[in-house]
Amino acid sequence: MENIMFRAKRNFRGMPFTPLMTRESKLQVEKKITEVLGELYGQYFPIKQVTPEDHEWLQERGVSLSENKVHTAAGINDDHPAGKGIFKEENNKFVILVNMEDHLEIVMLPGAGDEILTSLDSLKRLLRAFDKIGFANDAYLGYLTTSPENLGTGIKMSCTFKPLISKGEEECESISSKYTVKAQALEDINALESLVTLAANTGETKAICDFFVVV
Fold first, then answer.
1. Which of 100, 118, 151 is the last residue before a domain boundary?
2. How many domains would you assign to the chain?
3. 3-state SS record for 23-53
4. Are residues 99 and 31 in the same domain?
5. Which domain holds residue 39?
6. Pick from 105, 120, 155, 194: most CB atoms within 10 A?
7. How far from 86 is each of 22, 55, 83, 95, 100, CA to CA, in Å?
8. Where does a domain end: 99, 126, 151?
9. How far apart are CA 121 and CA 107, in angstroms?
10. What are the beta bridge partners of residue 181?
């Protein structure tokens, strides 16, 4: 199993979401986040200071810092690159994106095996640390995100894997329907990506384990 990734998106109470943010509000959110980042081991870079090597390293892991047309049309890229940045953990176990699509996006990059659940535990601790700022949430919708598809826990996962027995398009469609994921049969690997946010609390770990049963 390769390229395992958990992404958690959050926005903060009392602050406009990224399509409506001014330059000043972006800088304010960036300051709040970097204050919490000061408690972690790693380094924060404003977007314009990210090296080509780091851009390539992130791209290989499915993390893009490039402006995209959808974000530009929505106004998210207004005042770019003001207030945008990335934190890279010293052991490359996770990165944190600031003011990209949402105020905060934590991207966990675990290896296979036991690292998966360890990474999930780390993600929960990181979310608790940032919740000191105060997350925007709703009793019915869950955590509020810029894109409605991320409402709920705001956490999604994806991975690629080399199955012992090749799974064709028909079997991938069956997996996709059963687990609410997007399963793709590629040349020599299969790709798996959750289409809805993972279940909350104790069900969250079970949902992740269910994903890996199918591989």
1. 151
2. 2
3. HHHHHHHHHHHHHHHCCCCEEEEEHHHCCHH
4. yes
5. 2-151
6. 155
7. 19, 11, 10, 7, 9
8. 151
9. 13
10. 194
What are the CA-CA distances from residue 59 to residues 2, 46, 114, 133 (Å)? 15, 17, 25, 29
Q: Report residue 200 as tokens.
A: 């909350």
Task: Looking at the structure, tell me whether residues 144 and 163 fall in a common domain.
Answer: no
Q: Are residues 18 and 107 in the same domain?
A: yes
Cα–Cα dist 122/183, whole Å = 26
Angle, nearest 10°, between helix axes 202-213 and 115-130? 150
CB 9 within 8 A of CB 198: no
Write out the E strands in the chain. Answer: 2-10, 42-46, 85-89, 94-98, 104-108, 137-138, 142-143, 155-161, 181-185, 190-194
Which CATH number do you get for residue 88? 3.30.590.10
At a CB cut-off of 8 Å and minimum separation 6, what does 18 contact?
71, 74, 75, 76, 99, 100, 101, 102, 103, 146
